[in-house]
Design a protein that fits this description.
By secondary structure, the protein is α+β, with helices and mostly antiparallel strands. The chain contains nine helices and 13 strands. The strands form five sheets. Strands 6-3-5-4-11 form a five-stranded antiparallel beta sheet. A two-stranded antiparallel ribbon has the order 1-2. The chain has a two-stranded antiparallel sheet with strand order 7-10. Helix 1 (21-40) runs antiparallel to helix 2. The chain is globular. This is Replication initiation protein.
Length: 289
């Protein structure tokens, strides 16, 4: 059975490095300017074809420009909206996972080569499709039936040299469930990337607030890959995705829902944003990882 919440003190839900209201407002204004600039340069921007229509870009820009007291744009393309969403999700995960000690949970990152896509495919691919695909992989590999729970969110990075997006998942779950993700290796594109990154990366929980706040991001970064001594290396520094790719990502975010961007097993998110886990606390001390 799961532990009684009242039997142990509540963990701190202090938000870790969350943007200020002023910062996200400035970000939305900048995004709107970039969207309008890209729309004005259709059919190409920076010698790159613009896939989204000028009308779609301008309508999204208008949403982000609205600054009304107490009103947040109803789109995941808004930095203000994502700040609110991330705070709610962060609080829900922290509170629901508080019944588990740090050694009972793990965070993870999952990458598939099949999720390395060009801008044209990004406009076609939906978060719902990627979510269903991953859940199918969990079922076919026998991970779904393993006792425990996990929560994951779709994220992505842009590689400016190739012009490709690498989508991946960041998540958290109980140790036994997360450890079983290694079963995915070698199947469905879960192979090492060109830079040598492992398709399944599992980490112990040492700073819960920092690691949980990392699971859901409000933006996708641009990280270049360069050759160093004959080996492909991904730059550590993260920059804003160049146009028109940045505007294409914002349009993609605008078309998705948080539910489609979220993967949950052993629980569910309620309509009010609360998380409810149904998995029990189990003794899984046979391995340190």
């Amino acid at each position: 059975m799961r532990r009684d919440r009242s039997s142990k003190p509540r963990r701190s839900t202090t938000f870790h490095r969350f943007e200020t209201r002023e910062k996200v407002l400035r970000e939305d204004k900048k995004r709107a300017r970039l969207l309008r600039k890209t729309a004005a340069n259709i059919p190409v921007s920076g010698n790159v074809p613009v896939l989204s229509g000028a009308r779609e870009l301008r309508r999204l820009a208008a949403r982000l420009e609205r600054v009304q007291e107490g009103r947040i744009p109803r789109t995941l393309a808004s930095s203000r909206k994502m700040r609110r969403v991330r705070r709610k999700v962060f609080r829900a995960i922290m509170q629901e996972f508080e019944v588990f000690e740090d050694e009972e949970v793990r965070t993870f990152t999952v990458i598939s080569r099949s999720w390395c896509i060009d801008p044209e495919r990004l406009q076609i691919l939906t978060a719902k499709h990627l979510k269903r695909q991953f859940l199918s992989h969990l079922e076919r590999s026998g991970i779904s039936s393993i006792e425990g729970c996990l929560v994951a969110f779709i994220h992505g990075e842009f590689e400016p040299t190739s012009g490709l997006f690498q989508l991946h998942l960041h998540g958290m779950g109980t140790r036994k469930k997360v450890r079983a993700l290694h079963r995915l290796k070698g199947n469905w594109g879960y192979l090492k990337t060109v830079t040598g990154s492992h398709p399944i990366r599992v980490e112990m929980v040492r700073n819960r607030a920092a690691q949980v706040s990392y699971l859901l991001k409000s933006y996708w970064p641009s990280r270049a890959v360069r050759e160093v001594d004959g080996v492909q290396r991904r730059n550590r520094d993260k920059r804003r995705i160049p146009e028109p790719y940045h505007s294409e990502v914002l349009c993609w975010f605008h078309r998705q829902t948080l539910g489609d961007m979220t993967i949950v097993q052993g629980g569910r998110f309620l309509p009010n944003g609360e998380l409810r886990l149904s998995c029990p606390v189990v003794d899984d001390a046979d391995s340190d990882f």
